[in-house]
Amino acid sequence: MEFSKKDRLFLKNQYEILSRLDGENSSNYQEKIEILEQGYEVHYEEYFDLEDDFPEESSRLVIDTLDLYSVLKSSYDSLTETNLSERDINFLGFDGNHETEHMVYTKFFVETLGRFTELQSEDRFRGYNSHMPMVSSYYNMVNKWKDELKQKRDLSEDEIKMILSAR
């Protein structure tokens, strides 16, 4: 991680303000101030750890997947008779071991931003960790929904099955 002198000055000023506002943690802030003042780069990662950017394409896949599952849920709920079960249309999440960024972004999008919270209902929500890779499955499902069904929002049972078969 690299900071310009301007970056260091801005951060130093922020930590000086925090040090005055939060006297209980003042010594922690003073350490960061000294690291920034002296330019001790070796400590930047330790004290100022930031995650890499989450690509827009990946964010879009998560949002489109949540949107699709919201449509699957509402369409399923409107069916009077069906051979599908609620389990068939459950949002499975992303693999915590190999798709961690997707899983964490999903949690942020649902819990922090409060979007697609209907996917969390007790009888349908399985959490954010699918325990198996899902990115390619969701990519296929979203593309089928977008390309063949033109993002139709009221799906028949056959259309739901068609989307689910892309998994």
Automatic annotation (TrEMBL):
Top-level lineage group: Bacteria
Gene3D superfamilies (UniProt xref): Helix hairpin bin (1.10.287.680), yfbu gene product, domain 2 (1.10.3190.10)
Descriptive protein name: YfbU-like protein
